[in-house]
Amino acid sequence: MRLGVRIPVLLSAAIGVAGCVVVRSLTVGGADYAPGEFFPLHPGTLWVYEVRDAEGRIALERVLVRGVYHLKTQETDATIVEESGGMTGELDLDVSWHPVVYYRRGPFLYKFSGVNFVGGELHEQSLGEGEEKVLPADPAQHQRWESDFDIFRNEGTGYGARVVSVVQPGLELVRVRAGTFRKCLRVDSESVLATRSAQFDGEDVVFHYTDWYAPGVGLVKSEVHTSEPRPVTTFELVSFRDGKGPD
Fold first, then answer.
1. What does the alpha-carbon distance between residue 6 and residue 179 come to, in Å, rounded to a whole number?
2. Full residue range of the structural domain in which residue 208 is found
3. pTM of the entire predicted model
4. Is 1 a member of any domain?
C-alpha cells in the first residue's frame, strides 16, 4: 500500500536492503512477466506493518479495506481504506484512524487523501490540482509514470509533490516478518516535496522510495531515503489477512 502516513513523515522531515534477491526478469508483454494483483483492495483485507524511523523507534501501522465509496471529487466509484497508527515517537500515541480513497481510471490506480471523518460522517475536501498515481494495472506495459499533485493548498499556499516512479526489471524475493514473498514487483520513486506559494519560495526536499509489492498481497516492504544511506523510514509487513472470499 502507498500508506497515508508517508505524507506526515515527509512534512516532519522537511521541517525538522537486506532480504531481497532478484529471481526473475520482467519483460514487456513477454512470458517472463508473472501477472498478479499487486494492490488488492478486497473489503476486509487487513495489513499490519512495523514502521521504523531513523532513530530505531518502532510503531505499528494498521491498514483495513472498508469497502465501496463514491468519490464525489472525481465522480467515480472507489474503495475506502482505513489507516491507523504508523507514527513513531510522541505521535505513536495517536490511535485515530484516517480514511484514504483509491480509485481506478484508465490504466492506473489513483489515491485521494482529502477525506476526513468528522462527527461520524465522511467529508471530502479539495486538495488542489493534480492526482496521485499509485500503480498501473499492467506494470509490464507501463514501467514508468509521473505524478504532479498538491498535498494541500489553501488560498494559494500549500505543499505539492512531483513524483517519478520506475518499475525495476527484476521480480524479487523479499523476506519480511510476515514471511517470504516471491516474484515481488520493485518500484523506485523520486519525490520532490515543494512549497507552492506566490509569497514564499521554499527549498525543495527530495525523497527516494523503494517499494516491494507481492502479487495477491500488495506492499510488503518500503524504504524511504533522503541523501543519507540509512533509510529515514522503513515499512515491513508483519501480518496479512486476505478479505477475498473463496472462488
1. 23
2. 6-241
3. 0.83
4. no
Dist CA 112 CA 152 (whole Å): 11
Q: What is the identity of the amino acid at 168?
A: Q
Distance CA 209, CA 189 (A): 5
CB–CB of 163/146 below 8 Å? yes
H-assigned helices in the chain: 6-15
Q: Could you tell me if residue 74 is inside a domain?
A: yes
Distances (CA, A) of 44 to 32, 47, 225: 32, 10, 31
In a domain, 124, yes or no: yes
Q: Is 151 exposed, middle or buried (0-12, 13-18, 19+ CB in 10 A)?
A: buried
CATH of the domain at 171: 2.40.360
What's the domain count of the chain? 1
The residues near 90 (Cβ < 8 Å, ≥ 6 apart) are: none
Q: pLDDT in tens for each of the 247 residues of the chain?
A: 544 434 434 333 333 344 665 444 444 334 344 445 899 999 999 999 999 988 888 888 999 999 999 999 899 999 999 998 866 665 555 567 789 999 999 999 999 999 988 877 888 888 888 999 999 999 989 999 999 998 877 666 778 889 999 999 888 999 999 999 999 999 999 999 887 665 556 677 899 999 999 999 999 999 999 877 778 899 999 999 999 876 5
Q: Which helix (H) or strand (E) holds 63?
A: strand 58-71
Grid cell in block for residue 105: 481510471
Give the whole-angstrom CA distance, residue 222 versus residue 29.
Answer: 26
Q: Is 109 a member of any domain? A: yes
Residue 20 sits at φ, ψ, to 5 deg, of -125, 130
